[in-house]
Amino acid sequence: MDESTTSPAGFSPYEMDSLMKYFVGNNCKYREQIIIPRTVGPIHIKSIDEKRVEAAFESCAFKSLVASVMGYGLGAALGLFSASVSPNITAPDAPQQTAKEIFRDLKFSTLSYAKNFALVGLMFSAVECTIESYRGKADWKNGTYAGGITGGLIGLRAGLKPGIVGALGFAAFSTAIDYYMRH
């Protein structure tokens, strides 16, 4: 058919093609090359907003914040427990502690544990996420390296030898926990 032939509606093939594109939409097929196996169920391609939210939740800052908050809660629970079972040994002739003094000691111990656990959780999570981002792999080595760096930094406050012992100990502990959690 040439350009001058018209359809029963009175339009040329070029005009019909233009009208079809206008009413039906663009005939370019995006994502035509994507192959998604249908093993689990219907396929759902994520929108841009879903990808942004997922990226925010998977960021190192968010992971570190969550680890810090959870560390604070765990530390507070352990601090409260340890303070409640530790005996306050006073001299035989000393006056007994009042309830206010006991609660003050409980508060101090709870907050001390909570802050320390929050700091360790924050440091470990930030270092591990940074190492994972740098290496581009999610395996047991990330936790080992992060444990070594975190333990070393915490131990360095007491000196070089405690820093080395802290690095080795925390790395071994992180490796053992990671092995236990993955198997």
UniProtKB/TrEMBL annotation:
Gene Ontology biological-process annotations: protein insertion into mitochondrial inner membrane
Q: Which keywords are on file for this protein?
A: Membrane, Mitochondrion, Mitochondrion inner membrane, Protein transport, Translocation, Transmembrane, Transmembrane helix, Transport
Family matches, as InterPro entries: TIM22 (IPR039175)
Compartment list: Mitochondrion inner membrane
One of the entry's Gene Ontology molecular-function terms is: protein transmembrane transporter activity
Membrane topology for this entry? Multi-pass membrane protein
Instruction: Kindly indicate where the leader peptide sits in this chain.
Output: none
Task: Report the protein's function.
Answer: Essential core component of the TIM22 complex, a complex that mediates the import and insertion of multi-pass transmembrane proteins into the mitochondrial inner membrane. In the TIM22 complex, it constitutes the voltage-activated and signal-gated channel. Forms a twin-pore translocase that uses the membrane potential as external driving force in 2 voltage-dependent steps.
Task: Give the similarity note.
Answer: Belongs to the Tim17/Tim22/Tim23 family.
Name recorded for this polypeptide = Mitochondrial import inner membrane translocase subunit TIM22
User: What taxonomic classification does the UniProt entry list for its organism?
Assistant: Eukaryota, Metazoa, Ecdysozoa, Arthropoda, Crustacea
